[in-house]
Backbone:
């Protein structure tokens, strides 16, 4: 077990070439030993700006894989637009803001992270998906691209291009369905005389545990533990991609859970555990008053404008008035109207009806990021985490730990004995 714990950290690399070589030969190997690979511990990418540059730097300092939340990275510059701009002008400003943010994050990692392994997480459903994806590729600073919330139908072809040869790609899935879809692409692309590249790993996010948007069809499925047996799902994925490592996410936050993930697969990733840190972009006041508040339950609903079921703290979303709806429409950048999706908020907001159920994801996540708690995504285990001594200061007061303290805690405490 001690051996396992040390295998969870990345080595130090003197050069980028050394790092790529390690990733190719040890982590994302494609031979018959691929299923024995140990992928260093990582965080799940969290947007908007929850796993930002400061967070990734803290993961790098601990020799773990830091994953940058690359969905709407330019959020700061596009919180409120001047009156009178057209939707296409707002979209263009969003494009420019995202581009600038990726460039600035890349410079930060180049200067501060010393050849650490850095990933980026991007939602497929975003209107600016393609633009951001290209920025990430062009920067040459991101080693692994994680794509979820939608079928990454573009990646088998795009990642087969020469400019992506030093970037690894990992679809985020909840079952073998997406894996089967990607494999089908091989035939399709082959027939069209195009190149195909298989995923370097699969990120299996379990909907019954994970935070944020979930890969379940509806609320009931997302809460039905019997549907999400990770051993069974890994086996199904390996039937599709036999020599591909799998990273498990959802419901991991203690040593025994990490060990279990490495027993059945090749890697473990955590969202909620890392959200509750000083370096995450989640403001400390929200962590203390909401996440660590024992009176706030967890809910799964379908109110996100993405249309996906999602898990969050059960606190009220911004008050809906005619004025707030008009304000959301005025600042809309069509953020989730990409790749055949439509915004569930806009569909109803256009009727200016304060009784409709959905919320504008862009507006609410930015509000939360600015310290006004509305939509607070969380994994199911938050209800256990709150009792951990990790979140108490010397006198029993609430405390937000650093990434370093969090890692020390989770590598030495089991879920059963960690009150
Ligand atoms: C606040 C929050 C924001 C998240 N944002 C994203 C995101 O932008 N993209 C994504 O693929 N997953 C996102 N997730 C999911 C995490 O990356 C991670 O896979 C998941 O939370 C793992 O489950 P856990 O919270 O039980 O550890 C988010 C989760 C949370 C709690």
Residues:
């Amino acid at each position: 077990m001690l051996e396992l714990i040390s295998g969870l950290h990345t080595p130090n690399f003197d050069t980028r070439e050394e790092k790529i070589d390690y990733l190719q030969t040890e982590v994302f190997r494609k031979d018959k030993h691929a299923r024995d690979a140990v992928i260093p511990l990582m965080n799940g990418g969290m947007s908007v700006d929850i796993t930002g540059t400061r967070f990734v730097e803290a993961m790098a300092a601990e020799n773990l894989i830091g994953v940058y939340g690359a969905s709407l990275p330019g959020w700061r510059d596009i919180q409120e637009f001047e009156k009178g701009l057209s939707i296409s002008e707002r979209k263009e400003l969003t494009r420019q803001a995202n581009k600038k943010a990726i460039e600035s994050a890349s410079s930060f990692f180049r200067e501060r992270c010393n050849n650490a392994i850095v990933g980026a997480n991007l939602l497929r459903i975003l209107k600016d998906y393609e633009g951001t994806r290209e920025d990430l590729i062009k920067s040459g600073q991101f080693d692994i691209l994680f794509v979820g919330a939608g079928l990454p139908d573009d990646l088998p072809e795009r990642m087969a291009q020469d400019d992506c040869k030093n970037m690894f790609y990992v679809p985020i899935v909840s079952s073998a369905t997406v894996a089967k879809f990607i494999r089908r692409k091989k035939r399709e692309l082959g027939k069209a005389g195009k190149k195909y590249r298989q995923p370097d790993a699969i990120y299996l996010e379990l909907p019954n545990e994970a935070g944020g948007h979930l890969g379940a069809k509806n609320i009931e499925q997302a809460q039905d533990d019997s549907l999400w047996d990770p051993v069974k799902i890994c086996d199904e994925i390996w039937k599709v991609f036999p020599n591909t490592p799998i990273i498990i996410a959802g419901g991991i936050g203690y040593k025994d859970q990490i060990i279990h993930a490495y027993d059945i697969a090749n890697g473990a990733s955590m969202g909620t555990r890392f959200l509750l840190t000083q370096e995450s972009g989640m403001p400390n006041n929200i962590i203390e008053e909401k996440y660590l508040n024992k009176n706030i339950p967890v809910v799964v609903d379908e109110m996100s404008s993405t249309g996906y079921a999602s898990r969050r703290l059960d606190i009220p979303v911004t008050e809906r008035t005619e004025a707030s709806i008009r304000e959301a429409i005025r600042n809309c950048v069509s953020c989730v109207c990409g790749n055949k999706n439509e915004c569930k908020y806009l569909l109803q907001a256009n009727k200016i009806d304060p009784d409709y159920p959905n919320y504008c994801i862009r507006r609410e996540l930015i509000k939360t990021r600015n310290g006004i708690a509305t939509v607070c995504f969380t994994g199911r285990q938050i209800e256990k985490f709150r009792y951990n001594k990790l979140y108490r200061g010397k006198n029993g007061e609430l405390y937000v730990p650093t990434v370093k303290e969090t890692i020390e805690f989770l590598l030495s405490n089991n879920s059963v004995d960690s009150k």
Q: What stands out?
A: The first strand starts at residue 42 and ends at 43. Residues 44-47, 50, 69, 71, 121, 123, 148, 172, 205, 209-212, 249-252, 269-273, 275, 377-379, 381 surround flavin mononucleotide (CB under 6 Å). The chain has a mean pLDDT of 92.
